[in-house]
Design a protein that fits this description.
There is one protein chain. This protein is an alpha/beta fold. The protein folds into two domains: about 50-100, no CATH class; about 100-215, no CATH class. The protein is built from five helices and eleven strands; from the N terminus they run ααααβαββββββββββ. It has helices at about 1-30, 30-40, 50-65, 70-75, 125-130, and strands at about 105-110, 135-140, 145, 150-155, 160, 165-170, 175, 185, 190, 200, 210. The chain has a four-stranded parallel sheet. The chain has a three-stranded parallel sheet with strand order 3-6-9, with no helix packed on it. The chain has a two-stranded parallel sheet with strand order 4-7. α1 (about 1-30) crosses α2. It is elongated. The structure holds 2-acetamido-2-deoxy-beta-D-glucopyranose (NAG). This is Pectate lyase. It comes from Dioscorea zingiberensis. Keywords: Signal. GO terms for molecular function: pectate lyase activity.
Length: about 220
Amino acid sequence: MEADHKLKLLFLCLLMTITIPALKANIGDFDEEWEADRKKPKSLRKRPTKPEPLHITTHLNRQVHRLQNPIDACWRCDPNWDQDRQKLADCALGFGHETTGGKGGRIYTVTDPSDDNVLEPDEGTLRWAVIQPEPLWIIFKDDMKIELKEELMVTSNKTIDARGCNVHIEGGAQITLQYVQNIIICNLHVRDTVSKEGGMVRGLDGSLWTTYSQRW
Ligand SMILES: *[C@@H]1O[C@H](CO)[C@@H](O)[C@H](O)[C@H]1NC(C)=O
């Protein structure tokens, strides 16, 4: 047992002695000018003595490792997140950071998991909600499994917010986001879906359009 432990320690030390010079060598190779500069007396140095880029990337990596998914961390840390669901829009990061989804619009609750009428969706279904012309913040009454009969064409300025419920889009068609803007989809489980022809989908304003789909 003892010997085994010592062996492990030795191995670790060896690994470190190999790794540390290799790391330094890398920096040297990467920036010879900086290495040369570092050897000069302090008053003649052009650059700071610390390898700052390394510091910066290390700091960034630490943040990313700590938070895992910073968007989830943004709302999960607030125990009352469900009191103001639209605050989620402020959590957007990266290229989507200006996305507001259905923020400012009504909250609409999906109560009906069926998708029996694609052309004239029943009120209470997800399909009805996503074709409304106004911005909507769509939430779900309960856990549900929704089997889409045709592609679900989501229109602009919508949030599909499944937080707090276990909502599965499963076994049927997929969600299509095409020629639309400003959509947030959160905590929705999409699984075992198959690509289907878009077919004909009618919006409430009476306009008709056909789809070939770009799948999500
Ligand atoms: C979405 O909302 C933005 C901002 O309110 C508005 O300018 C835009 O016209 C809306 N898009 C659609 C398709 O309604």
